[in-house]
Design goal:
Layout (H helix, E strand, L loop, with lengths): L25 H4 L15 H12 L14 H11 L15 H32 L17 H8 L8 H17 L5 H12 L4 H20 L5 H21 L1
C-alpha cells in the first residue's frame, strides 16, 4: 500500500456488559487522521444529523421505497417536513398526494425520535471523553447510534401521537439500559434529564445519586485510609475557604 491513500472505517462496540468506551489502537491513531463520526465540526453537523434518517430508511415500511430512488427526493421531503413549500412535480418519482402526505408525516415523527438520539449520542461522547477523576456524575453509557435509530424508526408510523412516540423512545432505552452490568437507574435518570421529562421524584433521586457519587470521588480509594483522611481535610479546607469568600 506504499504511496496509496485509503480510509479505514472502524466500528467499535462499547455497548458491552460494562459499557467501556472503545479505544482506537495507538498503532493506528499515531499514523492517521482520526475522526469520530459523532464528534463533527459545525459545518458538517447538518449532514451528520441527516445521516441518521438516511440510514434508517429501509427500516420503515413507508420510507423504504425512498432508498431505491434518487436521494434528492428524500431531501425534498425533509424540507417539506420542516415547513418549506416544494411542489411534488419537482420529485424524481411520481408520488400521489396521499403517499406524499404519509411520507412527510412519518418524517416529522422521526424528527422527534432523532432529537433524542442525537442528544444521547452527544452525551455519550462527552462522557466517554471525560477522565474518571474529573467526573461530577456517573458515566453515561446509553448510546445514540444508527442501530438505536433504526430500531426506533422501524416502529414509527405517521398516525402516532407525541405521547406514543415518547413511550416508544422510553421503552426502547429502558430495554437498552437493562443490558448494562451496572448503572441502569442512573443512566435512565440522566436520559430523563436530557429529554426534559424528569418528574420531581426523579429529580430528587438524581440529585441524591450525584451527591453520593461526588462524595465517593472525594473519598478516593476505600482501602487507602490515610488517603481518605487527606481527602477529607482537603475538602474541609475548601469549604472553609468558600465560606470566607462568601
Amino acid at each position: 500500500m506504499r504511496g496509496k491513500k485509503f480510509a479505514v472505517v472502524m466500528a467499535g462496540n462499547p455497548y458491552t456488559e460494562t459499557g467501556e468506551a472503545f479505544r482506537v489502537p495507538d498503532m493506528l491513531a499515531n499514523r492517521a487522521d482520526i475522526y469520530n463520526l459523532g464528534d463533527m465540526l459545525s459545518d458538517q453537523r447538518e449532514a451528520f444529523e441527516l445521516s441518521f434518517i438516511e440510514n434508517s430508511l429501509t427500516s420503515n415500511s413507508v420510507l423504504a421505497p425512498l432508498a431505491t430512488r434518487h436521494l434528492d427526493d428524500l431531501y425534498r421531503f425533509v424540507k417539506i417536513a420542516k415547513g418549506e413549500n416544494i411542489a411534488l412535480s419537482e420529485m424524481s418519482y411520481s408520488y400521489s398526494a396521499t403517499e406524499a402526505n404519509e411520507i412527510v408525516s412519518t418524517i416529522q415523527k422521526i424528527f422527534i425520535v432523532q432529537e433524542t438520539i442525537l442528544s444521547v449520542n452527544q452525551q455519550y461522547i462527552n462522557s466517554a471523553a471525560t477522565a474518571d477523576e474529573y467526573r461530577v456524575e456517573p458515566a453515561f453509557k446509553l448510546q445514540g447510534s444508527y442501530r438505536n435509530m433504526n430500531k426506533l424508526v422501524e416502529k414509527v408510523s405517521s398516525v402516532m401521537t407525541n405521547n406514543e412516540l415518547d413511550t416508544l423512545v422510553q421503552d426502547h432505552y429502558q430495554g437498552e439500559a437493562q443490558t448494562l452490568a451496572s448503572g441502569t437507574e442512573e443512566n435512565l435518570l440522566k436520559l430523563a434529564e436530557l429529554r426534559g421529562s424528569m418528574t420531581s421524584e426523579q429529580e430528587a433521586r438524581w440529585t441524591e445519586i450525584k451527591q453520593s457519587y461526588q462524595r465517593n470521588q472525594l473519598m478516593g480509594d476505600k482501602e487507602d485510609r490515610a488517603g481518605q483522611v487527606v481527602q477529607q481535610l482537603a475538602m474541609l479546607n475548601q469549604h472553609v475557604a468558600q465560606m470566607g469568600r462568601d
